[in-house]
Design a protein that fits this description.
Layout: E1 18-19, E2 47-52, H1 62-74, E3 89-92, E4 112-116, E5 128-137, E6 143-151, E7 157-158, E8 166-167, H2 168-180, E9 182-183, E10 195-197, H3 208-217, E11 257-262, E12 277-281, E13 286-288
Parallel strand pairs: 2-3, 2-4, 4-6, 5-13, 7-8
Antiparallel strand pairs: 1-9, 5-6, 5-11, 10-12, 11-12
The chain binds zinc ion.
Length: 300
């Protein structure tokens, strides 16, 4: 599942980072393993508001979770591009009730981080650690909404610096990289590398390659809308008008963009290898037309 980006010794340029694009399915890739088809994804504004689903996880102390989420978000803020700070800001937004990864082109939305404690809805992906769903304009690559789901139904996250198994902050930091528009990179040292060595906390902050990627997408001085509000405005309440959902949030606005998969065949995260590795695979992007949502989903 990760083979395309898991080749050791693949020559690559100094800037190895990859940007996510509108291409899904079979896409051409360059020597760095980056997609060359499709429009590159980006947030047009200067700020993205991010909400936590208010229930958090039954297995993690609320205060600890809020701290971890905050740290992961802040890690991507004001990155130093050498000639100024990257022109994208991630801002904590109000918690939301809704517990769905969803984008509503006709209503308010929210970019949500949520736990799935009891059920993981993605068939055959029980061993996935997390999934980010990015909704975007298929013509321009403009990101419309991103939601991140943490699979606590099948995995036990750890939150401290000792006895680390699946480090929650590392996993969330990586997923937030997808929210920024980054795809997996072949750079072993990058947080956006597709490999995660179980037991480490090394992905808690963006590394040089990740920062280069963010600076390429959002160079210092870029102009754009300054509002941190989600597309269509911010909706924190549940609407109950969606079939099968029970409670739908015309407010929750996410789409899956990446998976972290545990299992055999996963690539080692570094040259030392050894031990059990968790692989992170860009899993799926939900493409949405500017006005008419598409429901295409692709896994790779
Ligand atoms: Zn990933």
């Amino acid at each position: 599942m990760l083979a395309a980006t898991a080749v050791f010794g693949w020559s690559r340029s100094a800037d190895a980072f990859c940007r996510s694009t509108t291409c899904s399915g079979e896409c051409s890739r360059n020597a760095d393993g980056c997609k060359t088809d499709g429009e590159k994804l980006f947030w047009p504004g200067l700020c993205v508001g991010i909400s936590l689903q208010e229930d958090g996880s039954a297995h993690i102390d609320r205060d600890i979770w809020v701290d971890i989420a905050h740290n992961a978000i802040v890690a991507w803020v004001d990155l130093d591009c050498g000639n100024g700070a990257a022109s994208i800001h991630l801002a904590p937004a109000k918690d939301v009730v809704c517990h769905l990864s969803q984008y509503d082109p006709d209503g308010p939305n929210a970019n949500i981080i949520m736990f799935q404690d009891t059920k993981w809805q993605y068939a055959g992906e029980d061993n996935t650690l997390a999934k980010a769903t990015v909704s975007y304009d298929t013509e321009t690559g403009e990101i419309l909404d991103t939601d991140i789901e943490l699979n606590h139904a099948y995995n036990e996250y750890t939150t401290g610096d000792d006895f680390v198994v699946y480090d929650l902050q590392s996993i969330l930091t990586h997923e937030l990289g997808h929210l920024m528009g980054l795809d997996h990179t072949l750079d072993y040292n990058a947080t956006m590398n597709a490999g995660y060595q179980q037991g480490t906390t090394e992905l808690r902050t963006p590394e040089l390659d990740d920062i280069d990627g963010v600076c390429a997408i959002y160079p210092p001085g870029r102009e754009g809308p300054t509002s941190c509000e989600p597309n269509g405005g911010f909706a924190s309440e549940c609407a109950t008008d969606v079939e099968d959902a029970g409670c739908s949030c015309r407010t929750v606005g996410p789409s899956p963009s990446s998976l972290w998969r545990a299992g055999p065949g996963a690539r080692k995260s570094g040259p030392q290898g050894g031990g059990f590795a968790i692989a992170l695979a860009l899993a799926s992007l939900v493409a949405l037309q500017r006005r008419r949502p598409r429901t295409d989903e692709t896994s790779k």
